[in-house]
Amino acid sequence: MNSRERVFAAIKGKDFDVYPAITPTSVATLEGMKASNAYFPAAHTHPMQMADLAAVGYEVFGFDSIAPYFSVHLEAAALGAKVDFSDPNTTPFVTQRPMNKIDDFSLPPNFLAKQEFQALLKTISILKSRYKQSVPIIGKVIGPWTLAYNLYGVENLILDTILEPAKTQALITELSSIPLAFALAQFDAGADMITWAEHATSDLVSPQIYERFLFPVHKKAANIIQVHGPLILHICGNVMDRLSLIANTGIKLFHIDSRNPLKEALKIAGSSLILTGAINNPVSLVQGTPYSITQEVIRTFREGISLVSPECALPTNVPTQNLRAITETAHHMNPHTLPPM
């Protein structure tokens, strides 16, 4: 099987030859930048550099996917936030937000024509032309909750869920049209599936807030987007208190953080939701060894995951040998003959 066939077989519950390993979020590393000669900050916004850096995930690290969006800031920058895309060692960050109050936002006409949106669409087209049907291209959109953080501020948004709940809900509804349109445009450009990044973890957002403000958005996203291909919801941190809600959205896959007990999460997900992720970033991939990572990958398969991946966007200092430990372990394992512990 090629990578695309392997990944889609796992998603559809069909037989596959060896375990697939994918990258729903960024696997841009310093070693990857050196291998591709594509560096931040240019690789955040210039299509050819974005494509070349993204391809390292497949060509060098060995993953069964290519994902070319390396931050959570393209949409915010296009919508008026000032973003420092920074240097190879630093994650981009917002330096000035365009919103001062909850009802400041107005959806600009023709927003997909903005350079930041077009850069990713062009990148996906380049990658699709380069790889055809051999490996899945994973696009990415930033959900309305995270987009509101970037445009308005975390504290402001959380406070206004209490002080201005109706206006907050109106903002989230309006912002949700952006990832919906952007996702469909990415499919048109050649994406095979989409990651929807939504930073609505339990330390910031209660299950009740998730159910009121985001559950309807995610359910709508599942209905609209998955006509074109699978949707992967990414939420960092512990989500056990809302995983049953997520499983009821109709979204096909959930990218899970290692802070969630995997066996319990798989029971809650049941047959409704496929889990990917679970390989720890800050300890295992940054500080671990290929041997320790191999053991973690095997344990993850044993607990029931069929589609392994790093739990979140990688720190840029993850060594290549540790990423290759994930993919080489997966690709040397027949799903019917897992070795004993």
Structural commentary:
This protein has 341 residues and is α/β, with parallel strands linked by helices. It has one domain: TIM Barrel, CATH 3.20.20.210. 48% of the residues lie in helices and 10% in strands. It contains 15 helices and 8 strands. The chain has helices at 3-11, 30-36, 42-45, 47-59, 74-78, 115-131, 144-152, 154-163, 165-189, 207-225, 243-247, 262-269, 281-287, 290-303, 320-331; strands at 82-84, 93-96, 138-142, 193-197, 231-234, 253-256, 274-279, 307-310. Helix 6 (115-131) packs parallel to helix 9, helix 7 (144-152) packs across helix 9 (165-189) and helix 14 crosses helix 15 (320-331).
Read across the widest sheet, the strand sequence of neighbours is 3-4-5-6-7-8
| Helix-strand pattern | HHHHHEEHEHHHEHEHEHEHHEH
Helix-strand category:
alpha/beta
Shape annotation: globular
CATH T-level topology: TIM Barrel
Low-confidence stretches: none
Largest sheet: 6 strands, parallel
When the domains are counted, the total is: 1
What is the percent of helical residues? 40-55%
User: How far apart lie the N and C ends?
Assistant: 27 Å
Could you tell me the mean pLDDT?
Answer: 96
The top-level CATH class is Alpha Beta
Radius of gyration: 19 Å
Assigned CATH architecture = Alpha-Beta Barrel
Q: Can you count the helices?
A: 15
Number of strands: 8
Strand content: 5-15%
